[in-house]
Specification:
Oligomer: homodimer
GO molecular function (chains A, B): DNA binding; DNA-binding transcription factor activity
Keywords (chains A, B): DNA-binding, Transcription, Transcription regulation
InterPro entries (chains A, B): Bact_HTH_transcr_reg, Chorismate_lyase_/UTRA_dom_sf, Tscrpt_reg_HTH_GntR, UTRA, WH-like_DNA-bd_sf, WH_DNA-bd_sf
Number of helices of chain A: 9
Largest sheet of chain A: 6 strands, antiparallel
Protein name (chains A, B): GntR family transcriptional regulator
Pfam family, one (chains A, B): UTRA
DNA sequence: TCGAATTTGTGCGTATGTATC
DNA sequence: GGATACATACGCACAAATTCG
């Protein structure tokens, strides 16, 4: 199977495997071959069996013409009327096909103008590197300046009662007082990140760091601020998922209601005691959270 | 401002702060101002003058009846026929309204049976901890067993030419041969994670690890497999964002087209040389990627 | 076992509104 | 203003899957 640069399709070979913990004792692949036939109908990258659904075919056709370079970023794809003629289908069908590309982020429709191929997006990098806490200054400002953007942020603190979710994450009782701080971060005036932070008021009450963005330790990050009151943050947990934006989030980030956002639920711990938790989110198509992790550490 | 447990609203105080680093004079910030104005007119969250769209109204009505408890998880929402009668609209309109709830993950449609309200999900934890690579065995299997789920996965490898994106991530030339492997992970038979991995064929050609899921080193993870051919993986980069599922992804994960997925783009490095890259994704409402990071490491 | 009723999925052709050029 | 293009909507038809008597 030797080839250097060329890759004729006749030399393409597919390899199928299936594993479960049930047969972990045997490293062999005897049973895998049997199921491969069944699999090939399920997950082939280009198995394409079937569904003669016209709107899917049209969407596939458009997607190929985009990735193939025939339809270029910034250019317009054929109009509904032309696609209707070309494929000989009803207008509702081509409309549905185009809407698929829209949800996939490949195309943007402008009413009265046309449907345009979007340029491949360069997402803003929001660093979550394991060493970001060690350095001084604001990680966000550093990220933005490294990418040629002007960083800014505004905050808003208020004392509230802990909801059930916040209480669970901070290991306190529901209704306990917590300091809630909303951060909205902007790059070149455009909002790119929003965070809502919660700190148990019982922990910071009467200390100089009770208000996260006030006093001499404002903006120093949780690790440094907690150190001021003798609390040593040992580790943090970050759980990343995604959903549609709520009304408040959409307003702060200047996006539409329901637009896809990446959600990061972060909790700081001091020896298994949670000392701060936050919901950090950014538009899914405009920013990404970047982790850089070493491989040579010993586990706990 | 002393209170212990009670928090009357009369004692609530708001604290507002704003910070920026605009002092750093940068060329080009002026043009960004202009575009930001345009932005705010485009995507105002509630500036819209109530387009009274019927399909949105119907979707809102259904959403309210679900969150209000009138329509309970596991139960069926009214059929298309009933909704058309009730709202006096065409069938295509109620169909579209329901499809909105489907992409929001609130409802699941079963052809011939009905549209059912989905139960609120507890997200599966997919560990990305910094130490996961150190241990033997499969991290996914460990995660699932810790959560009482039966893990399994299937894979499919094929040689392909590198796309522009893959080429950039692997620091090779576009069109160079790469080994492409699709992984579909299941927990209790339900797909929860999908990964598409790319390895430069120039790196593994003729070695025992050319096929990731074949031979004595199958399923051992990139770090261990690369060690076999004398390549020491030093660190990895993971960038997390979110978008709507494509057709292939939706099919493999058994979700609907356009449902929100969390996307993790991972690259393994051996001293700044990329040796593997992958797109890992999971349904945004069914799983979350969890990082646990220590605070006491020294930065690079 | 079978078949009819129900329900969702897909598709057609047309009409109207609205934004852009 | 007129032509073009997208957005929404109507009403109907048929196919596929399910349900249930």
């Amino acid at each position: 199977m030797g080839f250097s640069t060329s890759l004729p399709s006749s030399e393409c070979v597919d390899y199928w495997y299936e594993r479960s913990q049930l047969d972990v004792s045997r490293p062999g692949s005897l049973s895998h071959r049997e199921s491969s036939v069944k699999l090939s109908t399920q997950i082939g990258p280009e198995s394409e069996t079937t569904p003669d659904h016209k709107y899917l075919q049209i969407a596939d056709d458009l997607r190929r013409r985009i990735s193939g370079g025939e339809l270029r970023p910034g250019g317009r794809i054929p109009s509904r009327a032309e696609l209707t003629r070309r494929h000989g289908v009803a207008s509702a069908i081509v409309s549905r096909a185009v809407s698929i590309l829209v949800t996939e982020g490949l195309v943007e429709c402008r009413q009265g103008s046309g449907a345009y191929v979007l340029p491949p997006k360069t997402r803003l990098q929001l660093s979550r590197a394991w060493y970001r806490e060690v350095r001084g200054g604001s990680p966000f400002a550093g990220d933005m300046e490294a990418q040629g953007k002007a960083p800014a942020w505004r905050t808003h603190s208020r004392m509230v009662h802990a909801t059930a979710d916040v209480a669970r994450r901070l290991a306190i009782a529901e209704g306990d007082p917590v300091m809630r701080t909303v951060y909205v971060y902007t790059a070149d005036e455009a909002p790119v990140q929003r965070a809502v932070s919660y700190e148990p008021y019982a922990l910071t009450q009467g200390t100089p760091i009770a208000l996260p963005e006030d006093g001499p330790h404002a903006g120093r990050g949780v690790r440094d601020r907690m150190a001021v009151i003798g609390v040593t943050v040992t580790h943090r947990s970050e759980a990343v998922s995604a959903r549609g934006a709520t009304i408040e989030e959409a307003r702060d980030l200047r996006i539409s209601l329901g637009v896809i956002v990446t959600v990061l639920r972060r909790t700081y711990f001091a020896d298994d005691l949670p000392v701060e938790t936050a919901d950090i989110l950014a538009p899914g198509d405009a920013a990404e959270f970047v982790y850089v992790l070493p491989m040579d550490q010993a586990g706990p």
